[in-house]
Amino acid sequence: QPRSTLQRTKRRNCRKWQESTALVPRARREETWACLDVARWCRSLTRWCSKEKWASSP
Length: 58
What we know:
By secondary structure, the protein is an all-alpha fold. The chain has helices at 2-22, 26-30, 33-56.
C-alpha cells in the first residue's frame, strides 16, 4: 500500500522536524516561518491520521 508508506514517511519527517527545531533557540525558531508551517502541518496530519484510523476501523 503506497499510501501507508507515504504516511509513515511523513510522520518520520515530522518527528525529524520536531527534533531539529528543539535544538534551535526559541527566539530564532519563532522567526523561522518554515518551522511554524511544519508544526501546523504536523498537527493537522496527526488529526487526519487518527480520523483515518477511526474511519477504517471495523
